[in-house]
Amino acid sequence: MARDWTPTSWRSLPAAQQPEWPDEAALDRALKQIASYPPLVFAGEARSLQAALGRVAHGNAFLLQAGDCAESFEEFTAVNIREKLRVILQMAVMLTYSMGVPVVKVGRIAGQFAKPRSASTETVGGASLPSFRGHMVNDPAFHAEARRPDPERLVQAYHQSASTLNLLRAFTKGGFADLNRVHAWNQEFVSTSTEGRRYEQVAAEVERALRFMRACGVDTEQHAALHEVDVWTSHEALILGYEESLTRQDSLTGDWYDCSAHMLWIGERTRQLDGAHVEFLRGVGNPIGCKIGPEATAEWVLDLCEALNPARIPGRLTLITRMGAERIADGLRPLLRAVRDAGHPVVWACDPMHANTFAAPNGRKTRHFDHILREITGFVAAHRAEGTWPGGIHVELTGDNVTECLGGAEAVGADDLDTRYETVCDPRLNARQSLDLAFRVAELIRAAG
Ligand code: PEP
Ligand code: CO
Fold first, then answer.
1. Is 0.90 topped by the overall pTM?
2. Contact by Cβ (8 Å): 261, 40
3. Is the Cβ atom of 271 under 6 angstroms away from ligand 1?
4. Inter-residue contact 441 to 84 (CB < 8 Å)
5. Reduced to 3 states, what is the DSSP secondary structure of residue 124?
């Protein structure tokens, strides 16, 4: 694409999934306000993440991208953020320990507030209202005022992202993530379960290794790598006005970065090659992702790689496949082959959630742990067959003991779904299901190696 890019060039192209803001002037005011605020992340950080993802692209590291389907304005507490971080750290320890490669940790956090929807309106009992599009747009309650897109919510999303990121930085650099606390991360309810006991075994091994290093004269207190971790932020770049208002020119390189998060991705419903989302993200220097559903062809994927990563920078582009447990086995291999043969250095990640959603008998949207695991199994097998690296997983989870996904070691059943179904959008794995998944993934990849 030779067209000139500017932070506003997306505006001349069709932008799918944008809210119908009732008051353009109010929208304009909100976006100007956000544009005057400080960036949430810095260009140098985005470059560090891109370098880490470059190692994933080369098969020397693994990507764990995880967090809420949609963050909530209501569930915004330190405990909520800490518990999510804790599960991500626990999964990462298990993956690192079992696979022997670094795990790049990216949260769906500190900005994941906007949702694409399959229909722009929702009809209940004869009444039609705009669909809920995430807390940065409107409220899920089914009445007209709640569903009215309100630009003030964009400003609120900025502030909540800033606070969340502040706490994440404190937790990850201020001692909470210290590897010496690997046991302390295990919650009560987890330590008494099968997954908890397996985690305890790994934690004990890690502690033994740390003791061994100290006995050999390594001062483990002095190694930042053992006390601090990087947990990067990411969200779907959906509401392009918001993303544009946080797009800033890096003083060091002169390049443009979307400073709303370290990594941004394009969703399955907004990945049109001639659309506004691809146009916007092709011009920012951040590492970016794109969801790839079962209908994507190899030709289309190659065009996407050319559009988003013409310079073929390793780590710049992550392709997040979400094909469904049934379709992954046949659907993925032609894409892997095409991208490999064209020499595009992408990260391949598996989102085993979004094409495995179904309605339970009580009407709740749910996913089954076994389908999630089956899609990852197919993903790993396809990579093994093509000689490519199954670079990571992209999952929706929470640190709370919710009952939103079925199955797992504790066997959440359809009758349990109502007990704690708290998501504002898609069903998430709970802490135990997440730990269970990390074990299984590590086993799968080790067996494939
Ligand atoms: C999501 O990641 O929450 C999502 C909506 O995914 P997809 O674009 O793959 O449907
Ligand atoms: Co989702």
1. yes
2. yes
3. no
4. no
5. strand
